[in-house]
């Protein structure tokens, strides 16, 4: 499992005696990168110094709201100078508000918070936000200071789902600590269920907030895996999925280089192996996330070229531990019908289950009924129906076939069960769509129906 601990304080005396052993344990747990987060001027300097000695440690600089009352102009300048021109300083933080302990007057906290947001905007660095019992003021100040221009992360998130969504809309990520493992913390687990995995990060806040089963002991980066494992259970993903996705999210936020990789042809999510064979599509759906970026669940799916049979099979051979193979990337697989048939024939020869996720426009693309050609090669079709009438379909899916596009998908679904054992029509619950009408249509066409939550797209 690949992991990034997105928030730690490992420069402290708590690690003086066993720092190297602690780093070894992190590596053994799959933690390849660690963020050392400054909490005052002294610890910010320590974080910068530590990051300079280790290629896999990055850092942030800032002053915690506990110390807001004593911040001087010289302190602001010192923090700015630590960040300027240092590629290992990837964020401003942790900064924010703490109305639980109130160790500094709230007016001072708010002024210092605003100043650091302005500094982050000036330096084009994301923010790491500390928020304790100050949810409304945090959101208000982020909006007033235009923090969305740089974004950032709400660390050790303690707000509700509505606040999380509001912060996500302002270009912020939500970071989940080991407290998600605490038996009493059902509120945080419910929040995890409601937030897209693409908007989540994981952290330890070491040496604090040690997760179960080590609660009561000093926290350390290796323990971030317990948060990832609990998130995996809540999201119905594998721990490897959560590690890969949250690491991708963290690197993207902090502009840490993603690992170099060749074209992703085969990629795993849960227990399915997906095949990404084209970035071309028949439709141009309004809700498709690929128009923002060509990545899904931590996999980069932009292809430099469309792979041939040998490349696809080599990618399948390199994978393991999957229950089915699914033709589904950021493109319409049946555009490459001949390759699909060739690869599917080899997969069926090996006794593998084959599924195709499609927009149902293949008969129009190829000018013939292609479904008989899938007979015996495909076990399941998942068809994106997405509308109950031609007008909605054309509006949502931008089909190049006009009104014929909707009729084409209906004809495809009606015919498909004659050639493929399992056929499912789906619809994304975009605002304003009558999902019940789409369900009724699917059933009238003789296929099962699956509703896809709009928040789960991608």
Automatic annotation (TrEMBL):
Its cofactor is [4Fe-4S] cluster. Keywords: Hydrolase, Iron, Iron-sulfur, Metal-binding, S-adenosyl-L-methionine. Gene3D superfamilies: Aldolase class I, Metal-dependent hydrolases. GO terms for cellular component: cytosol. Residues 267-458 form the Radical SAM core domain. InterPro entries: Aldolase_TIM, DNase_TatD-rel_CS, Metal_Hydrolase, rSAM, rSAM_sf, rSAM_TatD-assoc, TatD-like, TatD/YcfH-like. Signal peptide: none annotated. GO terms for molecular function: DNA nuclease activity; hydrolase activity, acting on ester bonds; iron-sulfur cluster binding; metal ion binding. It comes from the Bacteria. PANTHER family: D-AMINOACYL-TRNA DEACYLASE. Belongs to the metallo-dependent hydrolases superfamily. TatD-type hydrolase family. This is Radical SAM protein. It comes from Geomonas paludis. The lineage of its organism: Bacteria, Pseudomonadati, Thermodesulfobacteriota, Desulfuromonadia, Geobacterales.
């Amino acid at each position: 499992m690949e992991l990034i601990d997105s928030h730690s304080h490992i420069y402290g005396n708590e690690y003086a005696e066993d720092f190297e052993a602690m780093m070894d344990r992190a590596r053994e747990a799959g933690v390849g990168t660690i963020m050392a987060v400054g909490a005052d001027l002294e610890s910010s300097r320590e974080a910068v110094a530590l990051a300079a000695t280790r290629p896999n440690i990055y850092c942030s600089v800032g002053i915690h709201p506990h110390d807001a009352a004593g911040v001087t102009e010289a302190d602001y300048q010192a923090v700015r100078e630590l960040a300027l021109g240092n590629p290992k300083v990837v964020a401003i933080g942790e900064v924010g508000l703490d109305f639980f302990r109130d160790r500094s007057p709230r007016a001072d906290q708010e002024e210092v918070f605003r100043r650091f947001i302005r500094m982050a905007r000036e330096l084009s660095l994301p923010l790491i936000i500390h928020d304790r019992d100050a949810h409304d003021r945090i959101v208000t100040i982020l909006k007033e200071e235009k923090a969305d221009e740089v974004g950032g992360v709400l660390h050790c998130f303690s707000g509700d789902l509505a606040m999380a969504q509001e912060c996500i809309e302002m270009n912020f990520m939500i970071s989940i600590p080991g407290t998600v493992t605490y038996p009493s913390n059902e509120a945080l687990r419910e929040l995890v269920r409601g937030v897209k995995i693409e908007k989540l990060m994981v952290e330890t806040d070491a040496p604090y907030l040690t997760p179960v089963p080590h609660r009561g002991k000093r926290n350390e980066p290796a323990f971030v895996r317990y948060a990832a494992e609990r998130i995996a259970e809540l999201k119905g993903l594998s721990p490897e999925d959560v590690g890969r996705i949250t690491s991708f999210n963290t690197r993207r936020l902090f502009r840490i280089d993603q690992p170099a990789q060749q074209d992703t042809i085969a990629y795993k999510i849960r227990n399915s192996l997906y095949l990404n064979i084209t970035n071309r599509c028949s439709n141009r759906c309004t809700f498709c996330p690929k128009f923002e970026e060509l990545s899904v669940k931590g996999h980069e799916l932009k292809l430099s070229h469309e792979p041939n049979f040998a490349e696809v099979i080599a990618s399948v051979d390199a994978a393991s531990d999957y229950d089915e193979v699914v033709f589904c990337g950021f493109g319409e697989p049946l555009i490459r019908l001949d390759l699909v048939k060739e690869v599917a024939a080899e997969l069926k020869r090996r006794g593998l289950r084959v599924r195709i996720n499609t927009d149902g426009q293949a008969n129009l693309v190829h000018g013939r009924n292609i479904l008989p050609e899938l007979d015996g090669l495909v076990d399941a079709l998942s068809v994106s129906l997405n509308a109950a009438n031609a007008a909605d379909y054309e509006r949502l899916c931008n089909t190049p076939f006009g009104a014929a596009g909707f009729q084409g998908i209906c004809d495809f679904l009606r015919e498909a069960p004659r050639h493929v054992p399992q056929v499912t029509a789906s619809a994304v619950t975009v605002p304003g769509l009558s999902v019940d009408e789409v369900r009724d249509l699917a059933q009238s066409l003789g296929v099962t129906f699956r509703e896809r939550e709009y928040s789960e797209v991608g």
